[in-house]
UniProtKB/TrEMBL annotation:
<dbReference type="InterPro" id="IPR029063">
    <property type="entry name" value="SAM-dependent_MTases_sf"/>
</dbReference>
<keyword id="KW-0808">Transferase</keyword>
<dbReference type="GO" id="GO:0008168">
    <property type="term" value="F:methyltransferase activity"/>
</dbReference>
<dbReference type="Pfam" id="PF13847">
    <property type="entry name" value="Methyltransf_31"/>
</dbReference>
<dbReference type="GO" id="GO:0032259">
    <property type="term" value="P:methylation"/>
</dbReference>
<keyword id="KW-0489">Methyltransferase</keyword>
<feature type="domain" description="Methyltransferase">
    <location>
        <begin position="83"/>
        <end position="208"/>
    </location>
</feature>
<protein>
    <submittedName>
        <fullName>Class I SAM-dependent methyltransferase</fullName>
    </submittedName>
</protein>
<dbReference type="InterPro" id="IPR025714">
    <property type="entry name" value="Methyltranfer_dom"/>
</dbReference>
Length: 238
């Protein structure tokens, strides 16, 4: 009888905690609710976070028409790269922008940061084949860019921020990595423009970006509006 009573109490306790877990739909920074097929059901300041594009999407990153669609050459010009710059490409993917920046920062350093080992391996092989010395690979996590404190003066994020599962923690780690007056160049497809043929969750509005970055210690310095499809939002560390 005692064993039966114990089993009943244990089952009731488990059911209680399971139900409690199902009703907890938010924490200090994030909320959780059903969303779209392109999202992870996690929201930050009213924005649903998108799924991460995996290694199988590398052909999209290296597509021949990318220069025409995004004017990536102009994007690089917007960074005003100096020979001694230390720049981190967060979510570097295949290294598309890394290999455009490295020749310009001749005496500086480009950090290629990604959480996917397959992406880093693709950069590693290309770096070796090209004999480039000023590129350093960094394996990031969902919550950190894993860069040394005060190590970079510029950060580039191209069409990746909207996929961060922990944007608050990631921005905190970038704030620490940036030197005084360091800048983040946030490149995101314009959420205000429905004509841009990109899924909704893979776009961001300027208003939404400002809301999120302001809450994490950054101020918008400029929106360089010279790209065909994307915002080029320049945030400064405060």
């Amino acid at each position: 009888m005692k064993i039966l009573k114990y089993l009943i109490i244990t089952i009731l306790a488990l059911n209680f905690f399971q139900c409690k877990g199902q009703t907890e739909t938010s924490n200090e920074n994030y909320s959780f609710k059903p969303g779209s097929l392109d999202g992870i059901g996690k929201w930050y300041k009213g924005r649903e976070i998108a799924h991460v594009m995996g290694y199988r999407g590398i052909s999209w990153l290296e597509r021949p028409e990318r220069e025409k669609e995004e004017n990536t050459s102009r994007l690089i010009e917007n960074l005003e790269i100096q020979p001694d710059d230390t720049i981190a490409d967060i979510g570097a993917g295949s290294g598309y922008h890394v290999f455009k920046m490295a020749p310009l920062a001749k005496t500086g350093l480009i950090y290629a940061v990604d959480i996917q080992e397959d992406m880093l391996q693709a950069i590693r092989e290309r770096k070796k084949d090209a004999g480039i010395k000023n590129i350093e690979l960094i394996k990031g996590t969902e919550k950190s860019v894993n860069l040394p404190e005060n190590s970079v003066n510029k950060i580039l994020m191209v069409d990746v921020y909207h996929e961060f599962s922990f944007p608050v923690e990631m921005l905190e780690s970038m704030h620490l990595a940036l030197r005084e007056n360091g800048k983040i160049y946030l490149i995101e497809y314009r959420g205000e423009d429905n004509s841009i043929p990109i899924k909704k969750l893979h776009k961001m509005t300027e208003e939404q970006a400002i809301r999120e970055f302001k809450a994490n210690g950054f101020k918008l310095e400029e929106n360089i509006s010279n790209l065909p499809w994307q915002h080029c939002l320049v945030f400064v560390k405060q």
